[in-house]
Amino acid sequence: MGSRTAYRTCPLCEALCGLELTLDDAGGVTHVRGDRQDPLSKGFICPKGATLGRLDGDVDRLAGPVLRAGTAHTPSTWEDAFQTVRRGLDTVVQRYGRDAVAVYIGNPTAHSIAGPLYTGAIVKALGTRNLYTASTADQMPKHVSSGHLFGNPLAIPVPDLDRTDHLLMLGANPLESNGSLCSAPDFPGRLKAISARGGKITVVDPRRTRTARLADEHLFIRPGTDAYLLIALVHTLFAEELVTGPTAAHLAGRINGLDDLRALAVDFPPERVQGVTGVPAPVIRRTARELAAAERAAVYGRVGTCTQTFGTLNNWLVDVLNVLTGNLDRPGGAMFPRPAHTPVYRRRNRPFHTGRWRSRVRDLPEVNGELPVATLADEIQTPGEGQIKALITIGGNPALSAPNAARLDTALAGLEFMVSVDPYLNETTRHAHVVLPPPRPAQTPHYDLALLGLAVRDYVRYSPAAVPLPDGRPSEAEILARLAVIAAGRDGSGHSGETSECRSEHSALRCGCRERALDEMIITGTLGKAAALPGSPVHGREPGELRKMLDPGSPAEQRLDMMLRLGPYGDGFGADPDGLTLTRLRTEHPHGLDLGALKPRLDEVLSTASGRVELCPPSFAADADRLRTALAARRPAPGGLLLIGRRHLRSNNSWLHNVPELVRGSNTCTLQLNPADAGRLGIDPGDTVRIVSRTGAIEAVAEPTDTVMEGVVSLPHGWGHDRPGTRTGVAHRHPGVNANAVTDEQEIDPLSGNAVFNGVPVTVHPVP
Ligand SMILES: Nc1nc2c(c(=O)[nH]1)N[C@H]1C(S)=C(S)[C@@H](COP(=O)(O)OP(=O)(O)OC[C@H]3O[C@@H](n4cnc5c(=O)[nH]c(N)nc54)[C@H](O)[C@@H]3O)O[C@H]1N2
Ligand SMILES: Nc1nc2c(c(=O)[nH]1)N[C@H]1C(S)=C(S)[C@@H](COP(=O)(O)OP(=O)(O)OC[C@H]3O[C@@H](n4cnc5c(=O)[nH]c(N)nc54)[C@H](O)[C@@H]3O)O[C@H]1N2
Ligand code: SF4
Ligand SMILES: [Mo]
Fold it and tell me: Is 81 a member of any domain?
């Protein structure tokens, strides 16, 4: 049998590794290895990428749509499935209004072309205020921080890993996660290089992780207390006159709020916070001095700093430290990547707002156009006007991933209508009346719209589908576009025969004239605006002429081509003949294109009303009062335990547990605890223990280990695959328990609405 090779970006995590796929004649993936010609990943691969073929060929992956009758799901045609969706949504909207339809968007949606290009249109077409995403279980605090500091919630500085001499890393474990909000294939290798060139890495984590072991110094911190440590570092910089950043040439005149910040930090000397954090005051002072002394340093906080009650303060203070030490926007510091698909001519200076609307039940503010997933169950279960009656999930598994997921699971069962775009029948989608599966990864083109703006070098890569789709099988982009058309109430009679394309491509499903109309509208609108805008590379040109120049691919590809050509490295539709186009990327750079080290670009990024970095936003200063109050009220630890999570290299949240090669060895759902706590509670290794919190109780096998600090227990999330009605055979045999059955949806970071997964108070007992 013959075989051929195809290249693509790995879609599984944020590291953007290039992969080389070997395919057999039937289009099956027989082998995967790292793409050595990828200029960013240079052949690096992890066990997940290496088993992409197994995921691709998983027999449990849904081959086509399924419809639910009672608790059973049966296959349907695509057209019947879409018609069922149309009826289901129409009925709910007519009966209860637009807000009765909610949308939940999960993590893989940020790793696809289809997600970023089409989910916005679905939400807009629905006209609902009930948008929920995994962002409020993850990085929303970072968006709120950047929104206020820089005027743009998407302007996220990343540590310039390859040039820094000093990295202070909090709540991140890239040796397992491969990095997040910092796309860096071979993160471990890049960290080792810091030490090799004489630099220093300090890791702050309640567990001595693999990353902590690789680092030069590890500081145990009590869960949920990073904000105290960070503000004490700020305090020390001011108190010891180590603040140099705001007067450094590249930041001078660009920083507001320095005096307010200094005044705020006065109350938090290291000696006052050492008790709550567990980090001794002399260590805090030394850490501040080392940070200030380093030639090129970066402070980087990740999911462990977000999923806390002070999530936004943490993420703010991380960048405050980068500013105060002069490391923001400087090589080796914390820098803003310049993604090839994002225009730089369209900056608007205006204040960042949250709370443009509020949630019905708990009165929580909208943030970034969405409401906290921590209140989704409230909105489904609480009767009254505006109650959620229907839900669209796209690439998400909130029945496992949301705080108090057991309650959400029950809530999902009570919905009048639910549709899921998902390849699996799992803990969430088993509740759906219709499941619309995207095609296999090998059949799916790839471009990282969300992640290329977070990479440690400017870099771009487009991967066409390795295997063509059979006739009548919609791509994920087409599925989502069709949902947008349905949501807009324009699905109607299906074929309208308006354009020559739809006549020539006619088939009940694929004619797509309505979906095409959506893309056309977006393309025409964008080109029209760009042509009218002074400073744009196509200013003054004729939009219709520009339209004709676009790549001849799918509508999604045409939109991508347009974005690249209007972007900072683009050809400006011919204005720069050497510039990027999608066609050129596809044909000349199949392994990706390195666009160079990160460049200082604060002026391009800043879009606050003042045009400066707002270092001490009033809402953050107000929230620091909560910090002050909590510090005063803090009593000595009551002897209870605090639950945190952990990630394993071979897991990916909830959904890779169906690949046999990945659910082996140490990738198990055990409760790790310090041997001293185990001894005190009479727990031996291998004992089954009961973990009880305000919201629930679960049982897991105990794994005493001194890598976890005393008073802390750790359980990974994404397990609990024993539910009836799912179709994931391997996962079902390795079920584990759902950590989110004991996390608390009532605890959130008030500024961002983010879920709190770290520092959940629990008690643990041996089960006799
Ligand atoms: N293998 C694998 N890779 C993944 C994923 C996966 O599930 N598995 N998930 C992907 C996703 S969705 C994301 S968001 C990224 C996340 O990427 P990372 O942010 O690197 O995620 P974690 O490995 O969970 O690291 C978080 C660390 O925070 C620590 N921590 C817990 N509580 C606290 C606290 O209060 N303070 C401090 N300072 N630390 C604390 C935990 O012990 C843990 O080591 O990973 C992505 N990559
Ligand atoms: N206790 C605790 N809970 C956590 C976390 C934690 O650290 N601790 N981490 C949180 C974080 S950081 C995150 S990001 C969330 C993740 O929360 P979710 O996004 O809700 O959960 P995932 O497990 O990533 O589920 C992904 C879903 O997408 C489907 N899928 C896979 N590939 C595709 C595709 O190509 N297209 C589509 N349409 N679907 C696809 C999978 O089958 C699965 O159903 O979980 C959060 N929950
Ligand atoms: S590190 Fe992430 S991107 Fe790279 S191969 Fe592994 S899962 Fe894929
Ligand atoms: Mo995440």
Answer: no
Residues with CB under 6 A from ligand 2: 106-108, 112, 134, 137-138, 303, 394-398, 401, 421-424, 426, 438, 476, 645, 653-655, 717-718, 739-740, 743, 757
Residue nearest to atom 18 of ligand 1 (CA): 172
Same domain, yes or no: 147 and 290 = yes
Q: What φ, ψ does residue 580 adopt, rounded to 5°?
A: -80, 145
State the Cα–Cα distance between residues 166 and 184, nearest whole angstrom.
Answer: 17
Task: Assess whether 203 and 296 both reside in one domain.
Answer: yes
Kindly tell me the number of DSSP H helices and DSSP E strands found in the chain.
Answer: 27, 28
Nearest to 234 by CA among 514, 615, 513: 615
DSSP lists the bridge partners of residue 712 as 642
Among 507, 526, 516, smallest CA distance to 555 is for 516
At 168 the three-state DSSP class reads: strand
CATH of the domain at 728: 2.40.40.20
- The closest residue, in CA terms, to atom 12 on ligand 2 is 138
Answer whether 579's CB lies under 8 Å from 571's CB.
yes
Q: Which helix (H) or strand (E) holds 317?
A: helix 311-324
222 to 201, 278, 476, 641, 767: CA distances (angstroms): 20, 6, 43, 11, 27
- Cα separation, 735 vs 731, whole angstroms: 6
The CA distance from 619 to 640, in Å, is 32
Residue 656 sits in the same domain as residue 743: yes
42-89, pLDDT tens digit by residue? Answer: 999 999 999 999 999 999 999 999 999 999 999 999 999 999 999 999
> Could you give the CA distance from residue 706 to residue 672 in angstroms, rounded to a whole number?
9
In whole angstroms, what is the distance from residue 601 CA to residue 446 CA? 27
**Stretch among 254-268, 269-283, 535-549, 638-652 having the lowest mean pLDDT:** 638-652
Instruction: Copy the structure tokens of residue 320.
Output: 């405050």
Same domain, yes or no, for 209 and 327? yes
Of 558, 591, 625, the residue at which a domain comes to its end is 625
Residue 398: helix, strand or coil by DSSP?
helix
Nearest to 170 by CA among 180, 183, 184, 162: 180
Q: Are residues 152 and 264 in the same domain?
A: yes
Is residue 419, in this structure, part of any structural domain at all?
no
Locate the ligand 2 atom nearest the alpha carbon of residue 112 and give its number: 35
Query: Closest by alpha carbon to 466, among 439, 438, 441, 437?
Result: 441
Look up the domain containing 172 and give its range: 140-342+602-625
pLDDT computed for residue 493 by the predictor: 45
- Per the structure block, which two tokens stand in for 131? 């948008």
Q: Which atom of ligand 1 is nearest to the CA of 204?
A: 38
Judge if 244 and 278 occupy the same domain: yes
Rounded to 10 degrees, the C-alpha dihedral 24/29/35/40 comes to 140
Closest CA to 26 of 8, 2, 49: 2
Q: In what order do the strands lie in the sheet with 72-75?
A: 72-75, 66-69, 434-436, 417-421, 390-394, 101-105, 131-133
pLDDT at 762 (0 to 100): 97
Ligand 1 atom 4 nearest Cα: 177
Q: Where are the alpha helices (DSSP H) in 111-222?
A: 114-126, 140-150, 174-177, 187-196, 210-214
Specify whether the backbone of 494 is left (phi greater than 0), alpha (psi in -120 to 50) or beta: left
Q: What is the mean pLDDT of residues 610-624?
A: 96
**In degrees to the nearest 10, what's the CA dihedral of 362, 367, 370, 374?**
-40
Q: What is the per-residue pLDDT for 505?
A: 42
Q: Tell me the per-residue pLDDT of 338-366, one tens digit each, with 9 for 90 and over.
A: 999 999 987 778 889 999 999 999 999 99
Tens digit of each residue's pLDDT (9 = 90 or more) over 214-238: 999 999 999 999 999 999 999 999 9
- Residue 562's nearest CA partner among 343, 346, 345, 347 is 343
Q: What is the DSSP track for 710-754?
A: TTEEE--SS-----TT---HHHHHS----GGGSS-TT-EETTTTE
CA of 139 to the centre of ligand 4 (A): 7
